[in-house]
Design a protein that fits this description.
The structure holds two protein chains of two kinds. Chain A is built from two helices and no strands. By secondary structure, chain A is mostly helical. Chain A is rod-shaped, with a radius of gyration of 18 Å. The longest helix of chain A has 28 residues, at 12-39. Chain B is of the alpha+beta class. Chain B contains three helices and ten strands. Chain B has an eight-stranded mixed β-barrel with strand order 1-2-3-4-8-9-6-5. In chain B, β8 (214-222) and β9 (229-237) form a beta hairpin. Chain B is elongated. The chains are: A mainly alpha, B alpha+beta. Chains A and B meet through α2 of A and α1 and β8 of B.
C-alpha cells in the first residue's frame, strides 16, 4: 500500500517526501480531532464516577 | 534442453506465487505497523491533546464565572434567595488543592455526565453544596481532560482542599487514611468498586443516615488508565467558612498557613 502511494506521489524525491509528510499530517489530524473524540466515550478508560 | 521447456513455466508460476505471498505478507506487516502507530497516537491524544483542549475550556469557564461574580451573579443563589438545584453544566465554584501547587485551580461544574467531566470536575447533583452539612461530592478525570484528579494518590491526610464560591472560602481537610479514629469510621482515602455509590451519600458508607458533619468527597478512576476501581478521597470542613472580604487573596491554608 505504502509502495503504491509512494509511486503515485508526484514531484521526484523532494515532492514525494513533501507529499508523504502532508498525508501523514492529514491522517493524524483526522484521527486526533474526529476519530478519537468519537471513539473515546465508547472505551472503558475514563470512568470516574460511582453509579 | 527438453527439460527446460517443462521447467520454465513451472519456475515462472513459482515466482508468481512467491511474489503474491510476499505481497500478502508485506500487506499484513504494513497493516500491523499502521495499527501500532494509530494506538501510539491515541495515547498521545489521551494524555496530552485532551489536556491542551481542556486548558482552553477551563480558562473560558474561569473567565465566565469570574465575570458573573463581578456583576453580583452567583449560580448558587436561586432568585428566591435559597440554595437550590443548579442547572446542569453550569460552573459554580473553584476547587484548589494547595499541595498540588498554587496554580492548581479548576472550575467545578454541575453534573457528572461525560460531557461535563470533559470540561472539569463535576458535582454529583444530589449531593450537598459547598459548606452544607452533608457530603459535597465531585467526580474528576485522572488522566487527560485536564487531569484534575491525577495526583489524588499523593494527597496526604490533613492537607487542604479549598472550595471558592462567589463570597466564601471553604477549607476542607483530608481525613485520616484508615478512618479508625473517625467518629463515623470514614477513611480519608479508599479504593472501591465502581458500584459503591454509598461513598457519595450524606454520611459516606451509611445510606440513609442523617448527616451532622460537612464533608467533601472526590471520586476518580483507579488505577490510572483503568475503569476497574475508583479512588475516593474524603475530607471534612475545617473551621467556619471564611469571607472573601476578610481574605481577598485566599485563606491561610492557601497562602501557606
Amino acid at each position: 500500500m505504502y509502495t503504491w502511494i509512494w509511486r503515485q506521489l508526484p514531484g521526484g524525491r523532494p515532492g514525494k517526501l513533501a507529499g508523504s509528510l502532508l498525508l501523514v499530517l492529514a491522517v493524524s489530524a483526522l484521527l486526533l480531532f474526529v476519530v478519537f473524540p468519537w471513539l473515546e466515550p465508547m472505551l472503558p478508560l475514563n470512568e470516574v464516577t460511582v453509579r | 534442453m527438453t527439460g527446460t521447456g517443462r521447467r520454465s513455466p513451472r519456475h515462472a508460476r513459482q515466482v508468481r506465487r512467491s511474489g503474491r505471498a510476499r505481497t500478502v505478507i508485506r500487506g499484513v506487516g504494513q497493516t500491523l505497523i499502521t495499527l501500532g502507530a494509530v494506538v501510539l497516537l491515541f495515547i498521545v491524544y489521551e494524555v496530552w491533546v485532551t489536556d491542551q483542549i481542556n486548558e482552553g475550556v477551563q480558562s473560558e469557564l474561569t473567565q465566565d464565572l469570574r465575570q458573573r461574580w463581578d456583576v453580583g451573579e452567583d449560580p448558587l443563589q436561586r432568585p428566591d434567595g435559597g440554595l437550590g438545584q443548579l442547572p446542569l453544566g453550569e460552573g459554580f465554584a473553584f476547587i484548589r488543592i494547595p499541595s498540588f501547587g498554587l496554580d492548581y485551580v479548576r472550575v467545578v461544574l454541575e453534573g457528572t455526565d461525560e460531557d461535563k467531566l470533559t470540561e472539569g470536575p463535576g458535582h454529583y447533583p444530589d449531593s450537598a453544596l459547598p459548606g452544607e452539612v452533608g457530603n459535597f461530592a465531585m467526580a474528576g478525570h485522572r488522566v487527560g481532560k485536564g487531569s484534575p484528579f491525577l495526583n489524588l494518590d499523593r494527597l496526604e491526610p490533613g492537607e487542604a482542599i479549598i472550595i471558592e464560591t462567589s463570597e466564601t472560602w471553604y477549607v476542607y481537610r483530608m481525613l485520616d487514611e484508615s478512618g479508625a479514629d473517625d467518629p463515623d469510621g470514614i477513611p480519608g482515602r479508599e479504593i472501591v468498586d465502581p458500584g459503591a455509590i454509598d461513598v457519595v451519600d450524606p454520611v459516606p458508607g451509611e445510606p440513609g443516615a442523617e448527616p451532622t458533619r460537612s464533608l467533601l468527597t472526590l471520586t476518580t478512576c483507579h488505577p490510572k488508565f483503568s475503569a476497574a476501581q475508583r479512588m475516593i478521597i474524603h475530607a471534612e470542613l475545617d473551621g467556619a467558612p471564611l469571607s472573601k472580604d476578610d481574605y481577598p487573596d485566599g485563606p491561610p491554608a492557601l497562602t501557606g498557613g
